Amino acid sequence: MRYEITGDPLYKDIGAFFMDVVNSSHSYATGGTSVGEFWSDPKRLASTLQTENEESCTTYNMLKVSRHLFRWTKEMAYADYYERALTNGVLGIQRGTEPGVMIYMLPQYPGSSKAKSNHGWGTLYDSFWCCYGTGIESFSKLGDSIYFEEREAPGLYIIQYISSSLDWKSGQILLHQKVDPIVSSDPYLRVTLTFSPKKGTSQASTLHLRIPIWTNSEGATATINSQSLPLPAPGSFLSVNRKWSSSDKLTLQIPISLRTEAIKDDRHEYASVQAILHGPYLLAGHTSGDWNLKSGSGKSLSDSITPIPASYNGQLVSFSQESGNSTFVLANSNYSISMEKLPESGTDASLQATFRLIFKDSSSSKLSSVKDAIGKSVMLEPFDLPGMLLVQQGKDRSFAVTKSADDDGSSIFRVVSGLDGKDGTVSLESGAQNGCYVYSGVDYKSGQSMKLSCKSSDTGFNQGASFVMNKGLSQYHPISFVAKGDKRNFLLTPLYSLREESYTIYFHIQP
């Protein structure tokens, strides 16, 4: 602020120097910084990954600095930083859509959880750390740095692509920005701008649209009323000057793709420690600590990281039973299958209690209701272990979760109407051993191991082999990928979307 008040360029230089030092040597892939509320040695971040990384107040203040610097310089680097830190360092500090439930620190170590730091998640009425004040303020001003006005000659800089409207008084127009939802299967960010000039408007004005540094020119297009516009290189602004009319429509389509980013650490032994981003979104792997990924044999990350189709959400299910006065769910726990108490959403347990039905007959993959699955042969893929399957190990033996299944039918189950005869229940019959079913027992407690049991006249067998099949407790985020790992695959989703789940954002990526 001293530069703005005094005009002394020394303070402008101090601000720019400070921002450069922090971003070049002390910032994580989120755009956040600090460890235990301090800065440590420059370019040594691989040694700092722990629970007490990235104080939320620090991100809040760095956003303020970058906002001032962009206003003074119009330099793209500050706009790119603002998007990164807002998307990955601010949107994820509130627990889902629960206002007033915030975090102090954003852990970065492999197997982190936002709930597992010295503070964890706060509470609605009994927490008020410094990061509550800045965090709540951050969510009250999400729209304050989308548009920047240039007053000398009417000009407008659009540095963030967020669906919004702006009453641009000096430009004498109402501007409407619409951004299509981003999904992992669509390789483009698509933006449409329309205009409502105010009555009597006669002046021309200029729009400057940010072409982010994270995109590329191949496949990028911009049009005004279907006429192509020349696009500058990434890291530049596309400037369009005209007298805007209500019939004008400006569209922008820019590639959004995967990339890796090395941790800021100049020691050779940490060169393989990298984060994965999809455009501006930092991706987190659902894992309690594994972090070994394969880079693939090709030049593109798409050889080893593939998008999850949106249709897969329609194949996600959870299986539940009542025992005593509690509801239990079928769950994958440490590569074995057991019955666990019904978990809250947004937790590791809710991921572990969700399975994807892979139909043996691919034409049967659409699942509108439980009845659609009856009579079908399926395989069960744990939600948090893509590529693995639930397999049978023989009569009266427990189940396992393995990376690949033999051709002996051990991973095949037939979905049949519940043996208990109740409406809406199903039983899972072995595809290899007729008359044998996934069985829990009766009157059990949490942790009850599941086994394959053959039908008998024992009291309670039909009950123990019948489940209510509902929509999965967890769902794939629209931006979701599967990454090939050394011993297992990883489900990748945006860090900001996580709540209690364990995650890893820095991976050891090897050939």
From TrEMBL:
InterPro entries in the record: AbfB_ABD_sf, Beta-AFase-like_GH127_cat, Beta-AFase-like_GH127_middle
Any matching Pfam family: Glyco_hydro127M
Keyword field: Ligase
Domain Non-reducing end beta-L-arabinofuranosidase-like GH127 catalytic: 2-144
Gene3D superfamilies found in the cross-reference section: 2.80.10.50
Signal peptide residue numbers: none
Residue intervals passing through the bilayer: none
Organism: Salix purpurea
UniProt domain Non-reducing end beta-L-arabinofuranosidase-like GH127 middle: residue ranges: 156-256
Biological process annotations from GO: L-arabinose metabolic process
Top-level lineage group: Eukaryota
Entry annotated with the keyword Ligase: yes
Name of this chain's protein: PROLINE-TRNA LIGASE (DUF1680)
GO molecular function, one term: alpha-L-arabinofuranosidase activity
Source taxonomy: Eukaryota, Viridiplantae, Streptophyta, Embryophyta, Tracheophyta
